[in-house]
Amino acid sequence: INQYGLDSSENLLILVDQFEELFRYQYSSKDSNSLNQSEHFVNLLINAVKQTELPIYVVITMRSDFIGDCSPYQGLTKLINDSHYLIPRMTRDDFRKAITGPVAVGGGQITDQLVQLLLNEMGNNPDELPILQHALMRTWDYWINNTNHTEPIGINEYEAIGRLERALSVHANEAFDEINFDQKKICEIIFKSLTEKGADNRGIRRPTSVVELSRIAETIPSEVIKIAEVFRRKGRTFLTPAPGIELNEDSYIDISHESLMRVWDKLKTWVEDEAAAVKMYIRLADSAELYDQGKTSLWGPPDLQLAINWREKQQPNLAWASRYNPAFERTMVYLKTSEEEYIAEEENKIRLQKRAIRRSKIVALILGTAALISIGLGILALVQRQDALSAKNEAEVQKENATQKAIEAQEQRVIAQENEKLATIQKDSAEYQRQIAVQQTIAAKRNLEEADKQRNIAQKNYLEAQEQQKRAEENAIRAKAEQERAEQASRDAERRRMLSIAQSMAVKSEQLTTDTLLKGLLAYQAYSFNTEFNGVPYDPDIYKSIYSALKLFQGDQFNVYNAHTSLVRTIVQVGDILYSAGSDGRLLSWDINSRQAQVLNTDLSIVKKILINDDILYGVTDNRFFAYDLKAKTSDLYSIQPNEIKDFFVLSNDSLLVVYNQAINITNNYKNRGREVYRTNSRINAVKYYKNSNSAFIANLDGSIDRIENVLSTKPEIKRLAAIPQANWGDLAFNGLKNILAAGLGSSQGAIYLWDLKSGQQSQILRGHTGRISSITFSEDGKYMASSSYDGSVRLWNFNDLNTLPIVLNDHNNNWATIALFSNDGKYVFSGDKVGNIRKFPVSVSNLVQNYCDFLKRDITKEEWKNYVGEDIEYKPSKCK
Predict the structure, then answer these.
(1) Cα(415)–Cα(347) distance, rounded to whole angstroms?
(2) Number of domains making up the chain
């Protein structure tokens, strides 16, 4: 100021508007520099007030609910106490002027009914003035654009814009609906980044630059600007800066008023979601830091499950996380390390739900009482109207009496002509009577006007009573709905608790290795709880606990088909018979139920593939085709040289689709190469052919995936579906019912990529395997996908809900799992491994427990119930049946 050269005779006023914005730095506790800057700014203002060299005056404006936040700044609190002025709340008359004044200035009129309705709906909302301002603006615009302006602004126009409680939300939703689907997701991220909840649950604005918003939303700055323009257009101004200011990457975007956070239904939900996400991330980051210091352990359920759900839903990135804690990579590593632990626990929220139910009932009672009072007022108005009509009738009677007296006076005047003296007397009497009649007529007219006035008042009160009754009925309906939601929430909380107990029991059952019977009882009780309370029927923990108990009851080999001596490469099912072959050159058939093997041929080399067509089993061995007649028990060999045969398929016209290293041919027999339909400069890793669509899918070494459509036509069409460099695909499969293509990596990453062929976009990546994907297959109904891997596991994925964890089958004991095949009825999965074992796994838990009860000799005891279920839950052990 000294450098500015202010004259000592001039007064300087410094106005700091919206001073509460300073406190958002205080809530960013990770940014110590921001705290220092805000404190330095406050000290500059204090010093400006306290110095005496120049006449400087400082005025700050802020919301009264932020006054307590000034206490951390020394000196500022005392100055505020010495000089602050609280702007009083507006009275009802003030609000009436705020409503009618602008309408009159604009040359319009507004009905008294609408003014009264607006005043009644104001309530004690802290955002009442900006909400009222916005609702009046929207009502005015609707009146201008949709009427001929001859009638005053009324309730119809007000109802059309959504009333006070919905006007701003409806307006914001109109802007939101103008943008496309992808922009809506970015828009949600933008508004989440511009708002946050403080430690005291107050909404806080958080201005953010365009470039930072683009990093958080993982998009380009121009896309952020395009969305911001929709919300700061003239007539909206939900975002700042004002519409006339051009935005660039360095521009800061902010919401125009805190009321938007509390009134816009979508933003309220977003703010709550963001607050929960930030809280979860900070908790995770703190735990990760303590874990690095050796002061805490890894997370377990239910916190772990909540954290996993948070990660899947929020999909956090470094730009977002750095706003709250910079140790993003450490936090994510900590969560990933904790992810394999599944011990579930649920907090009991029943008490809070009951309190909410009681509160809803009280609200409903109060609203009902208000409705009765309104009806009573309407009845009183009708009684007053009846009294006014009675007064009018009385006046009519008086008028008729006056007319009769005038007639009598006329008769007296005729007589008076005969007798002057008597006439004079009668004339005076008649004049007196006439004056009385006139007075009575005037009184009758006045009573009639008063009756009309009372009728209008009664009509107005009746309309208001109807409006109050309507609102009371609406509130009662809402209260009932809230009560039903609260009761449903209570039931949901109980359901979640019992499902959490079921998961906990399943995990504990799996951990037991000595008490076989208790292990089985806990697993079955967990399964019963999961079924009774509508849990996920394919829950991995429930499945593993039942399966683990069965292995103890029946032995590790209870589901093993053991006759091969080396790697199993191919499996086919026909009826109740399973056919298999592999690296040991043995061709076997199995009775699926007894698991007994029959040797069909032992003179073959490595068998890569077998299939059955019209009682003939065809296969590939030593780059030659062989045919085995299942009825005659005879074999024939056919040779197509010189190329190596990788795979083959029988087409719908019984011709062959033969796969070589770099080409695919169609031939009508097993002795010639036929015609070429596909060639690549890379190497073909995997091929799948589907008769229903007459198409083939090819996965190549260079990461490309192609589709041959109309394979049997003379000019089949080849389309490039995807290209992931260096993917070296292991296998692929097509889900025709859901139009989804799945392809698994041939590297140790073990990821499975999914593409939606309808949109042509990659839809998801499934992770979990840690070795090469050896096979992928879908069940006949398209609900499940099985994947096998060189990590020794087979995973069952529920394709109706890919966000749930898969069932992991690890019984191949780290030996390569080489192939997986669904049974014809889709109830089981057969898988082969490197050492020659074939295992049969039920797809669902319900198939797993079919003979389970044969091994349970008793029910769970009360003491066991207390230890594993809980003391507060009634003892009702599930009867095994």
Answers:
(1) 108
(2) 5
845 to 346, 419, 827, 880: CA distances (angstroms): 24, 126, 10, 14
Among 120-129, 437-446, 457-466, 542-551, the least confident range: 120-129
Contact criterion met (CB below 8 Å) for 324 and 282:
yes
Beta-strand pair 717-723/634-639? unpaired
Q: Is 115 exposed, middle or buried (0-12, 13-18, 19+ CB in 10 A)?
A: middle
Least confident range of 401-405, 461-465, 708-712, 854-858: 401-405
CB 62 within 8 A of CB 19: yes
Whole-number mean pLDDT of the chain?
85
| pLDDT confidence of residue 851 | 83
- Asked, as a colleague might, if the bond just before 102 is cis with ω within 30 of 0, I would say no
Edge-to-edge strand order for the sheet containing 684-690?
A: 684-690, 695-700, 704-709, 717-723
In this structure, is the dihedral angle defined by the CA atoms of residues 39, 40, 43 and 49, taken in order, positive or negative? negative
**Distance set, CA 673 to CA 224, 668, 669 (Å):** 58, 9, 9
Distances in whole angstroms, Cα of residue 272 to Cα of each of 469, 482, 717:
34, 19, 51
With tokens 């000089």, the residue in question is: 83
pLDDT over 70 at 178, yes or no: yes
Per the domain annotation, does 145 fall within a domain?
Answer: yes
What is d(CA 362, CA 474) in angstroms, rounded to the nearest whole number? 16
Confidence category of residue 346, pLDDT binned at 50, 70, 90: very low
Looking at the structure, do residues 841 and 756 belong to the same domain, yes or no? yes
Check which CATH number belongs to the domain holding 783 and give it: 2.130.10.10
For residue range 19-65, what is the model confidence (pLDDT) as tens digits?
A: 887 876 565 545 556 667 788 888 888 888 888 888 889 999 887 77
Q: Which two three-digit tokens encode residue 872?
A: 């507060």
Co-location of 486 and 396 in the same domain: yes
